[in-house]
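Q: Could you write out the predicted structure for this multi-component system? I'm mainly interested in how the pieces pack against one another.
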Amino acid sequence: MSLLSVRDLAIDYATRGGTLHAVSRGTLDIDRGEVVGLVGESGCGKTTLARALTGIVPRNARFSGGEIVFEGRSLLDRPTSEWREMLWRKISFVPQSSMNALDPVYRVGDQMLEVLRLRGGLTRKAAMTRSDELFGMVGLDPSRRAEYPHQFSGGMRQRAAIAMALALEPALVIADEPVTALDVIVQRQVLDTLRDLQARFSVSVLLVTHDISVVAYVCDKVVVMYAGEVVESGSVGEVLEKPRHPYTMGLTNAFPDLARAGGTLAPISGAPPDLRSPPVGCRFAPRCPFAQHRCTTTPPPLTFDDAGHGSACWRADEAPVLAEIAKDPQTWTRTFTSAA
Amino acid sequence: MDAYVHVRGLSKAFPVRRNLGQVLRGEHPVVHAVRAVDFDIVAGETVGLLGESGCGKTTTGRLLLKLVEPSAGAIRIGTKRLSGLSGSPMRDFRREAQLVFQNPFDALNPRIQIGRSLAEPLINAAVPRAEHADRIKVVLERVRVRGTDLLERYPHEMSGGQLQRIVLARALILEPRFIVADEPVSMLDVSVRAGILNLMRELQDTMGLTAIYISHDLALVRYVARRTMVMYLGSLVEDGPTEDVIHTPLHPYTRALIAAVPLPRVSQSRDPLPLKPGTPDARKVGAGCAFANRCPLAMPICLEQAPPLVTVAPGRRAACHLVSADGAGGIQPSAVRSVS
């Protein structure tokens, strides 16, 4: 049984321009001890979905459908207060910029103690010991606990945020772009620390990122989102090497690979749809070089094979052939609308 | 061939905040952002300037455009010596050399229509008003932006990719010969980024631009630049054809940097980086090599004496005692991690 199971989750934002359907098919599973990457481009709903799992949503957001089942119990039926009680203890969060996770006016060590004592109910002495342990685990010198966040480098702040997220040994850590703002060497070191600790505590991690290289480096599974919907998911090897959804194919083509010489990167022409009035059919159809008539009229369902590789494309059966065609950059210069 | 960009001994020191003791002693501490950098660029060449945050790559770019004044050293671009440039030659230089901004969302005035933003450089350069419409039309074709009401639109009405094309158009409208692009795609989504990179490659060819492409991302630098210079804490540590730098890096820092780049594929090395624990700190660079505290190959001499940037082969330079000792690269060439 999976630790977390999200089915057809829908989240709307009330905006001045009307209702914005930020997430309309949030479907993903996370098993115990698994690292799952949630990838997509800005505005695809990945951050909204990930944050919703902590029960913290902006005031103008509302759950409009679907379900979230965590450790066998539905979360959406519970009162928010109960959900919040689980924060840190069961589900913890590492934000993109740890300047947001750490309060600039309190010492880093004191913030750690607060989590351990108020949330974890540890005595002051036990919390101190545990705090030093956690600092050591993420590669921070415990003697720097008396410093303020601004005295830490970006990588150190991110390490501190990871230490806090792991402080109460939660079952699930949600990390929103945890290494995006970091230099490549620091990024690698933070990812290694995260993966190392994840394995040691067999905690599950949902890692939100726009970078498929980060997913390939550190994740077991990947979930790809486009325009508020999960369009493909499965093991990292399957999805990156045998993509079934044209958006995933396009994304991998647009990504430079340092180990592969030459070649041309192919952009996906067009822009994602306005989520206040998304297309009636497949949301990727207006940008898809393989779109057919039915794609513009009927949204394809997300279906899974026996190995757990899922995709939402009417032409998923032809995926191996389409993936070959997709490798030619010329393919991406034509779309259904421009061809029609 | 005679160099178009000629840089010798270029240095820039910024004053840092003084503590009380330093104030009382009348000291003026500085941080050396750029340290005695030498390089030439021939006309029509695109060079990548690679490094981590704080390495001085952005300051170097700003020095080349005379947006900041150097503390020491000389820059010649084309026929112009930048030191003491003023009056009419200075105005000519402002047409000849242009900056492409990093963040398209900040680079354009949000309260000014696109058409006026594009006309502004023409007004500043005293281009006759009658020519404006034509010049704008030509440059928009160059950057492949179309749309009837485009010129009346405001920045918020456009997507990031379109905006970055406008930013590029603004830099190109005066037909410059030299551009400095500082992380021009770092704010863009992957699917859009590829389009901008392809456009930049094409413009370099069709306009015969000499360009410096500043980035922390080796894969992107490789895509647009045949030559790469690597900076570390203000110094150039390596210079050469991009493919050589990637496949046979001469400097231990370059090797670590390459090893740290995650690849968009499952099979990749997850070995520890060839680095000793330590952090780069521009304020603590002493007499020796700035990288010595993190270098796995550091020798006693590295702590005492900074290695000069030596030419090991035509167009191939490195600043490492191991390299200068042998004359031709004492470090075992390490190719990009083997990919199965």
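A: Regarding packing and overall arrangement: The mean pLDDT of chain B is 88.
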